[in-house]
Amino acid sequence: MIGRKFKVLYTDYNPFCHDCNVKMSCNGTNSHWINKIREVRKQEYICPKCKYSYVTKLDFIPKNCNYTTLVQEKGLKQGLIEYKSLEKVAETIRYIHGHEPSRQTVLNHINANSEKYLGKIEKKLDEKIKKGKIEL
Ligand SMILES: [Zn+2]
Predict the structure, then answer these.
(1) Which pTM does this prediction carry?
(2) Distance, CA 124 to ligand 1 centroid (Å)?
(3) How many angstroms from the chain centroid is the CA of residue 81?
(4) Ligand 1 centroid, distance to 50 Cα (angstroms)
(5) Is the pLDDT of residue 135 over 70?
(6) Which contacts (CB < 8 Å, 24+ apart) does range 45-51 have?
(7) Which residue segments constitute the domains of the chain, with CATH numbers given?
């Protein structure tokens, strides 16, 4: 196992064209670098009838982004524990994931995800409050 390289290919299971309702054909693969360190392939499909094509979507990576949602939320999570400079946050991400995003990238991820992420935490707290029947 040591020294062997593996290819990872993401595919959709048995896709059909939404317009023609015929089975889509495979049409090559596209390369994608997850977190800028790991190359994976994404299957491309084409409809044999209308020629509509699409590439398998990776739902754990936001559109037009190189970083997974998990890595993007790392900056936010670290900021919730204690104050940390963007440089230190980027450095910590490098220790864990092997690639250091720029400070600007870390800031972009924080700005893009803070509302959604903090909303998730707020929702969990609301559920806990309801379960505990605590009134504010
Ligand atoms: Zn079609």
Answers:
(1) 0.71
(2) 42
(3) 22
(4) 4
(5) no
(6) 45/12, 45/15, 47/17, 47/19, 47/20, 47/22, 48/22, 48/24, 49/17, 49/20, 49/22, 50/17, 50/19, 50/20
(7) 9-55 (2.20.25), 69-131 (no CATH)
CA of 25 to the centre of ligand 1 (A): 10
**Ligand 1 center from residue 93 Cα (angstroms):** 43
pLDDT at 21 over 90: yes
- Interval between CA 20 and ligand 1 midpoint (Å): 4
Output the CA 136–ligand 1 centroid distance in Å.
Answer: 55
Angstrom distance (rounded) from CA 54 to CA 24: 10
> What's the pLDDT band for 99 if we cut at 50, 70, 90?
confident
